[in-house]
Design brief:
Length: 68
């Protein structure tokens, strides 16, 4: 599969927590963990599992910076 998004971060799934309709998938990328909220149906269709390599794909129209 090819995708146009350029912000693809390869990592390893470290946790999948399913709720009533939405799952939180945590992917470890180097020293950081990114959490994605996706549907339970997507978890099942992609056959996601802990320990599997996957990509976090970030597609956003805005990026904000904040400081204290």
């Amino acid at each position: 599969m090819k995708i146009s998004a350029r912000n693809r971060l390869k990592g390893t799934i470290v946790e999948i927590t399913k709720g009533a309709t939405t799952a939180h998938v945590r992917i470890q990328i180097e020293g950081s963990v990114i959490t994605a909220s996706i549907t339970n149906e997507s978890v099942d269709e992609l056959e996601l599992a802990v320990g599997q390599e996957a990509y976090a794909v970030v597609k956003a129209s805005d990026v904000m910076i904040a400081t204290d």
